[in-house]
Automatic annotation (TrEMBL):
Keywords: Kinase, Transferase
PROSITE patterns associated with the record: PFKB_KINASES_2
Organism of provenance: Sphingomonas psychrolutea
Family, as annotated: Belongs to the carbohydrate kinase PfkB family.
Molecular function (Gene Ontology), one example: kinase activity
Name used for this protein in its record: Adenosine kinase
Keyword presence, Transmembrane helix: no
SUPFAM superfamilies reported for this sequence: Ribokinase-like
Pfam family, one: PfkB
InterPro entries associated with the record: Carb_kinase_PfkB-like, Carboh/pur_kinase_PfkB_CS, PfkB_dom, Ribokinase-like
Amino acid sequence: MTQATYDVVAIGNAIVDVLSQSDDAFLAETGMTKGSMQLMFSPEEADALYAKMGPGIEASGGSAANTVAGIAALGGKCGFIGQVASDELGDIFAHDIRAVGIDFTTAARDGAPTTARCLIFVTPDGQRTMNTFLGASQFLPEAALDRDLIANAAILYLEGYLWDPEEPRQAMRAAIDVARAAGRKVAFTLSDVFCISRHGGDFRKLMADGLLDIMFANEAEITALMGTDDFDAAVAEAATQVPMLVVTRSEQGAIAVSGGETVACTAEPIERVVDTTGAGDLFAAGFLHGQAQGKSIADSLKMGAVCAAEIISHYGARAQVDLKALVASKLG
């Protein structure tokens, strides 16, 4: 096996986020479930909700894209594979992700639909409620994969959200084959309970077939995947099926289970939770960067916790401080 030239290459939805402050009454009025992600199935639906938003902040997003942006901020070398359209939002996404040093060469798609967008409503308690129009991102074809990029990454990171549409699902299956043939690790994030409700059988099969090396989940996701309300039982069962299981627990910190051993870390204290958008994405960034750099599981968890704490202290899912210096100061 040759030396990897990239730390992490991710495949995920290429999305431009629009964030706006809101309140619980507005969420109830528009039928949103607070703290969740729901899909919008037409540009008209997205336009109608956008018209109801207050002043917004636009920023390139997408779960896996946020993660590799965090890794790049930590000093890692990353690539991203995702589909945008040939439109203004597509240009914004491509510019932003390249500007932070990530290799992004996926060709833009001509014609409808538009580049994906996520309308995010942030309530005063920092909770984010997301409404996503997947647009062009759900048409990522297997032909768009940069196989050399994947084969030269220490870790291939896959976003569960993108498993929903058929075309990118096939692309990700092909990417797993490329990574495993090259002797690389494959990491997968479950993303959301709704993904599990639709594709839990697929995810469990990936585990059972030994195709995943690292799996990320939160408490709700791991219990949903394992079909039990008992958190400890869900973790114990899942940990027998994947070499490394990482579960975030909000203010309770996170755990990682590998080789029959459980390592825990506490959440990093912050003054105030402003916006939880990207918390899990940046936790994954810190953890994966630690693993790619040969850090211990404990140090990798700490790096994830530091990154997550930074991101929830402000609006948006991209770091606003020198993340590399911050992590270094916390690790000692």
